[in-house]
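Sample entry (180 residues):
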Amino acid sequence: MKIKNIIFTVIVFCAVSINAAEDNFIGDVKMGEVIHSDAFNYIKNNMLGKWKGKLTQESGNVIDASYHFKLVSNGNTIREELVEDGVEMFTTYSDKDGELVIKHYCALGTEPMFTVKKLTNSSVSFKSDPAPGYHSQHHNFVKSISWTQDKSAKDTIIMNNSVYVDGELQNNEAIIKRVY
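Predicted structure, serialized as tokens:
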């Protein structure tokens, strides 16, 4: 009988814990339901975790690169912490009015924003949002980013980006592997 009581207690505790997690409260404030865009869900379902690899710059120079995607803000924002050649940056991914909004806090001293250009089952690409007002002849900024799952290697992603530096467009590629 004692074992049945213990099992019953564990089942009730687990059910209450699961129910509490679904209610999305902070203190006594109910957070409400949020429906995410397909692009947000793609990043959430495919990119969360830590990734490491090498980034090849347009010049041919190869540097260390790491990316850490983490779900924050009650599951409503994904924060990407990236380190390229020891330089830390971060990017946020969140939805506004059903569309994914991406904002990158760049080592170039700019904060470009992006919108989804294309989404498939194995890739997502982003294009520059003109809202920040950056101009290729006057500002250094990231113009585009894409993440593509490598079909030949499990847990491997190919990241491509194009960056304006001193008026010149430079294309870079990183091959990264999930480390957890």
